[in-house]
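A further point concerns the way the authors explain their paired sequence and structure data. Nothing conveys this as quickly as seeing an actual entry. An entry of this sort, consisting of the sequence and the corresponding C-alpha cells, reads as follows:
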Amino acid sequence: MDGEVVDWLPLVANLDALFDSGFISFDRDGVVLISPALGEEAGLLDNIPRRLRQRPTQEQAIFLQYHTESVFEHATVDEPEVLDVCGAL
C-alpha cells in the first residue's frame, strides 16, 4: 500500500511471522484465514484463536484485504523456518 508500514495488528511473534509470510490473514470481520499452502501443517494451527478480539476498523479492513490479495494468496512453503514457527504454536 504505497510503501506505508502499518503496524497496528498486535499478534504474538509466532502468528506475526505467519502473517508476514502470508500463511495467515484475516477477513474484514477479523476471522482468521489459514493458507492452503501450509498443507497438512495447517493442522498445527488448530489451537489458535479463530478471530481477532476486536473487529477491524474500516482502515484496518482495507489493509487486511490488501494483505489477503497481495501476500496471503501468494504464499508458498519454501522456507523451513515457517514450518518451525507452526510447530512452536
Remarks:
- Strands lie at 24-26, 32-34.
- The mean pLDDT is 82.
- The two ends are 29 Å apart (CA to CA).
